[in-house]
Write a structure and sequence with these properties.
seven-stranded mixed β-sheet; single chain
Length: 235
């Protein structure tokens, strides 16, 4: 399918998620693995940060609290998610929500000091193009951080593909690192971020076989990949 068709399907799917209220549930699901990443980012008060795949904006809010003298821009392919974020966080003066895909971020080059994406990158039509776009909008010396739960090295998530309504990329940590380097990032590395949240013994959801697999998934952890846009003098 063409990228346009792919993006239309993404928008349709995540608009459906928004209508079901799933955007608001993302904070509870992803906060335990996101907070350690925010600590690693060591954000300064005047940083400009972009959240690619921001959903209904829960992470935009957390970022805005950490950069009171900077700016936070949330970008999402779902216009309904963006509407919900704008409405819910209208009082946050240092934030902005924009409709757009990772493959063509609607923002000027060399603006942001940090970029983050939580549980979005494996949905991008072309992850390599998405990383090139993030590289473009980052300033020299800026860093990109991608946190994903669906990746090849965690076998306890592979069955998710049967429940996805849209295609998703199941890549290894090494493949994600390679994509970062191909996009121009240096000092690329990855690490696991385990989720310490207890798993209920009576789990009967559709994403995992049983509580034991769910527990193993969280213990294996999410994959964090990060890299830096080099400065001209480093070239």
């Amino acid at each position: 399918m063409s990228d346009l068709t792919f993006n239309e399907k993404l928008r349709e799917e995540f608009n459906r998620w928004a209508a079901e209220g799933r955007g608001e549930g993302m904070e509870e699901n992803h906060l335990p693995i996101t907070l350690p990443v925010l600590e690693l980012m060591e954000l300064g008060p005047d940083e400009n940060v972009i959240d690619v795949g921001c959903g209904a904006g829960w992470l935009v809010r957390l970022l805005a609290e950490r950069v009171p003298e900077g700016r936070v821009v949330g970008v999402d392919i779902s216009d309904e998610m963006v509407r919900r974020g704008r409405r819910k966080y209208v009082e946050l003066e240092n934030t902005m929500f924009v409709v757009g895909g990772a493959d063509e971020i609607p923002w000027e080059a060399n603006f942001f000091t940090r970029a983050i994406s939580v549980e979005s990158a494996y949905y991008w039509p072309d992850p390599g193009q998405g990383l090139r776009e993030i590289f473009r909008v980052l300033r020299e010396g800026g860093s990109a951080w991608a946190l994903i739960n669906y990746y090849l090295d965690n076998p306890h998530c592979h069955q998710w593909a049967a429940n996805f309504q849209i295609p998703a990329h199941l890549l290894s940590a090494a493949e994600w690192e390679a994509l970062f380097r191909e996009a121009g990032f240096t000092r690329v590395a990855s690490r696991r971020v385990p989720d310490p949240t207890p798993v209920p013994e009576d789990y009967n959801g559709r994403w995992f076989r049983d509580a034991a697999q769910f527990r193993a998934f969280r213990e294996t952890g999410a994959l964090l990949i990060f890299g830096t846009k080099p400065r001209s003098e480093d070239a």
